[in-house]
From TrEMBL:
Keywords assigned by UniProt, alphabetized: Signal
Name of this chain's protein: Uncharacterized protein
Organism phylogeny: Bacteria, Pseudomonadati, Pseudomonadota, Gammaproteobacteria, Lysobacterales
Species in which this protein is naturally found: Marilutibacter chinensis
Domain of life per record: Bacteria
Signal peptide (UniProt feature, chain positions): 1-19
């Protein structure tokens, strides 16, 4: 009886994170947190972060695809240049292939920007730039309106 109860608890518990190319590509530089129906992705290469969040039952796959595409096609972190210039990488190709019908695949960076727009239109994803200065967390929202409007 205890084994059945334990199995039911495991099945009912939401997964801590969705297995995704994002975590395999960026390792410890990215943190994915899913709790209470919301998923947050933080990419933090130094004392600054780009943070993406989405609430809902299927938030994890969408927000992780969004974060991956944003880091590929939009982000200006200098640390991302090797990643952004390797459009043939298997992880990049895996994410891009999921949006092949909606986004031209002529260049990986352009496809990444297109995917950001597609997902920003479909989901109320929130994005922000976070800086940790002198022990304080300073958050500046990133407007996704241009991506939602297709501009």
């Amino acid at each position: 009886m205890k084994k059945i109860f334990a199995a039911l608890l495991l099945l009912a518990a939401p997964p801590a994170s969705y297995a995704h190319e994002l975590t395999s590509t960026f390792g410890d530089l990215v943190h994915v947190n899913s709790s209470r129906g919301s998923t947050t992705v933080e990419y933090c290469p130094d004392n600054t972060c780009e943070v993406f969040a989405l609430s809902g039952p299927s938030a994890a796959p969408a927000v992780q695809d969004f974060a991956f595409a944003y880091l590929l096609g939009v982000s200006e972190y200098i640390y991302l240049e090797p990643f952004q210039s390797n459009g043939a990488a298997p992880a990049v190709q895996a994410v891009l292939s999921r949006y092949r019908k909606q986004c031209s695949q002529q260049s990986a960076r352009a496809a990444g920007r297109c995917i950001v727009g597609v997902l920003a239109k479909r989901h109320p994803i929130r994005a922000s730039f976070v800086r940790y200065d002198e022990g304080e967390r300073n958050v500046v929202p990133i407007s996704l309106a241009g991506f939602r409007d297709g501009t």
